[in-house]
Design a protein that fits this description.
This protein folds into three domains: about 110 residues, no CATH class; about 130 residues, no CATH class; about 60 residues. Helices cover about 65% and strands about 5% of the residues. Strands 1-6-2 form a three-stranded antiparallel sheet. It has a three-stranded antiparallel sheet with strand order 4-3-5, covered by helices on one side. Strand 3 and strand 4 form a beta hairpin. Helix 1 runs antiparallel to helix 2. The chain is globular, with a radius of gyration of 24 Å. The two termini are about 30 Å apart.
Length: about 300
């Protein structure tokens, strides 16, 4: 590989990683990611692609970058309209995908085992699901430890809520393990390899089931709470639909309230015209500071490739 391509690959990776890390730091500190952070990622990567084209290395990477960014935007906005992500998360993911739209020269070789420009975006997104679920749980535990007894109780409630699901979903795994020990004891060679694979897949499905379900419990229980209406502030995200006078505020999208929104709600509350689930209280959602998932996924993907190749 030509040194110039290797260097430009390293610069593109640095741009994507820097964009993700800066966005994550803003998210952790303020829960808001300024628009200029993903804009920087797009613009800096575009400059590198233009420099490559002028140097005679072709313009194909620009189209691949656009394809990956569009895939990430479509995926991200689907989650945004489902109320799972903020719009800043979507733009940050797209910017990082534009900077690193395919396996770079120093990425794990297993990313090139499957052809097609669609494979890397799919691998990255699937990796982000697993890493995101693990990160959400770790964030929730740290959040509970920092913010006191109430959060600890909510986290313990999540563990309690998972007991029945974990017990039921573990039955196929336990049956497989029991069958495996029987086959090993009586040396039934025909079924040994088949059962080994079955046990592996059962364990994988069990772990994935527990991980994602627990992450959902945590999101629903730990990061949603009721606050007095008078404590509502700009940037808070509603976790319930409310009616304030003639205005209806939807909780469908993960969008923070504006200053005018807060003033309208408080004015309606003082006038006795606020309709909410609890009198004098409003349910808000804080959410996991999810942006950190993206640089973590980029580092994992570069080092280890597609996570499912280790599980299949």
């Amino acid at each position: 590989m030509e040194p110039n391509i290797l260097i430009s690959d390293q610069v593109l990776f640095a741009i994507a990683l820097l964009t993700g890390v800066v966005g994550a730091l803003y998210d952790l500190k303020t829960t808001e990611i300024p628009d200029y952070v993903p804009f920087f990622g797009f613009l800096a990567a575009l400059i590198i692609y233009i420099a490559r084209g002028i140097a005679g290395y072709g313009w194909g990477d620009v189209f691949i970058a656009l394809f990956t960014a569009i895939i990430f935007l479509a995926f991200g906005y689907a989650l945004f309209y489902l109320g799972q992500w903020g719009e800043a998360d979507v733009l940050l993911l797209a910017a990082m995908g534009f900077a690193v739209p395919k396996p770079l020269s120093f990425f794990n070789p297993n990313l090139t085992q499957v052809g097609g420009i669609w494979f890397y975006p799919l691998a990255f997104l699937l990796n982000s699901f697993v890493i995101g679920a693990a990160y959400s749980i770790a964030f929730a535990i740290a959040y509970a430890l920092v913010f006191g007894e109430e959060r600890k109780k909510l986290l313990l409630k999540c563990f309690e809520g998972m007991k029945v699901k974990a017990a039921i979903s573990s039955i196929p795994l336990l049956m497989g393990m029991a069958a495996y020990f029987v086959i090993m004891k009586y040396d039934i060679s025909l079924g040994k390899s088949i059962l080994m694979e079955s046990c592996k897949y059962s364990a994988m499905m069990f772990a994935m089931f527990i991980l994602f379900n627990f992450a959902r419990y945590v999101d629903r229980e730990v990061f949603m709470r009721y606050i007095p209406v008078e404590n509502l502030k700009e940037g808070d995200v509603l976790a319930e639909d409310i009616v304030a006078g003639r205005r209806k505020f939807s909780s469908k999208l993960f969008v923070g309230l504006t200053k005018n929104d807060v003033e309208t709600i408080k004015k309606a509350w003082k006038a006795g015209r606020l309709e909410s689930a609890r009198e004098n209280m409003i349910r808000i959602k804080e959410g996991v500071r999810y942006a950190s998932t993206f640089p973590l996924t980029l580092l994992f993907t570069a080092k280890y490739g597609f996570i499912l190749f280790y599980l299949l």
